[in-house]
Amino acid sequence: MKMTDAATLGSVRVTDEGYLVANVRTARIGTQDYLGAELDRPDLDKVTVYRDESEVFRKASLQTFGLLPVTDDHPANMVTADTARMVSVGTTNEEVLRDGEYLRIGIKLTDAATIRKVQDGKRELSVGYTSELVWGDGIAPDGTAYQARQTNIVGNHIAIVAAGRAGPLARIGDSQPSTVARWGASPITDEKDVVMADAIQTRTVQIDGLSVITTDAGAQALEKLMKDMTAAEKKAAEEMDKKDGELAAKDAQIAEMSKSVLSDADLDAKVAARADLIGKAKAIAKDVATTGLSDAAIRKAAVVAVLGDAAIAGKSDAYVDARFDILSEDAAKGDPVADALKTGVTVATDARAEYVKGLGTAYLQSVGKGA
């Protein structure tokens, strides 16, 4: 039996060549209601037909929806190689995807007159296909009771129509048995798919110099996407500026460190000054420790070794430095007593005799007093 499913032409765009390109949802899983007379069951007012996802998304079935001819309204008969040239106004893409409960296919309209009709509001789609009906009562997963199941779904064409629902478009073949479905039988109502053409508001959005015709919702989504992209680019630029700043700071630090690197002459001068300081400290206090100490600490240690901690308690570094300099100058002058002990002292004979005489007189006086 030949059957049709209605869908709505979604977001569209026009290529530089003037072709209209869109991505659409077509057949879906679930239940749909048909007039009994449309399905050769005049004894029934309504027939609920169930399409299982294993049938709708069966690989053999999906492949039949790729590269289908697109027509302006349904042709009188199935589209074949003999009639495609006369009725085709475009084609579907080869790739057919699953989109939740639906099949999603890209279409391309190449006929200028049909493209103008779409732009003027003729935007519903009606998918023509054949399928077999297996009669028998059952319950769909959502709890809906059905009287027949659809199997062996084979796509034939996609028609652009003013209204894709039953009525004038519903057509039944005359001599085929009721187990064979014919395209033309359309669901009575299907609120999940119904979006009438006159309810669709379209807008043209400029993206990178291209004009894209889409719905209000599509335009809002595109505008949000472009806004998000702009924000992302701004954030990336800010991050780049931050990195540049960090690199500049490191470069400045390296340059400053380079300045602090001593030349050979400077290093020699510092070594000489250090040796001179240690020599002065050792001259002041022979056993003073200097290893690992700073210059200021060496000066302080030398002063404390001679004068004690109390002498510099609470004093400034300048005071300590001054005391160190004084002690260093004194140390440079030498100790007269120590020098005399090292070299010996020459005493005149008369002076020695006089000294001895004085000692004897003092002794005799002390003895006489004792008597």
What is this structure, in a nutshell?
This protein has ten helices and 13 strands. By secondary structure, it is of the alpha+beta class.
Notes on the protein architecture:
By secondary structure, the chain is α+β, with helices and mostly antiparallel strands. The chain has two domains: 2-200, no CATH class; 268-361, no CATH class. The chain is built from ten helices and 13 strands. The strands form two sheets. Strands 1, 2, 3, 4, 5, 6, 7, 8, 9, 10 and 11 form an eleven-stranded mixed β-sheet that branches. A two-stranded antiparallel sheet has the order 12-13. The chain is rod-shaped, with a radius of gyration of 55 Å. It starts with a strand and ends with a helix.
Shape: rod-shaped
SSE ordering: EEEEEHHEHEEHEEEEEHHHHHH
Give the helix/strand class: alpha+beta
What is the number of domains? 2
State the total count of DSSP E strands.
13
What is the helix content?
25-40%
- Biggest β-sheet description: 11 strands, mixed
The average pLDDT is: 77
The residue ranges in which pLDDT falls below 50 over 5 or more consecutive positions are 164-183, 189-200, 345-352
Termini separation comes to 167 Å
Strand proportion: 25-35%
Rounded radius of gyration (Å): 55 Å
Please report the number of helical segments: 10
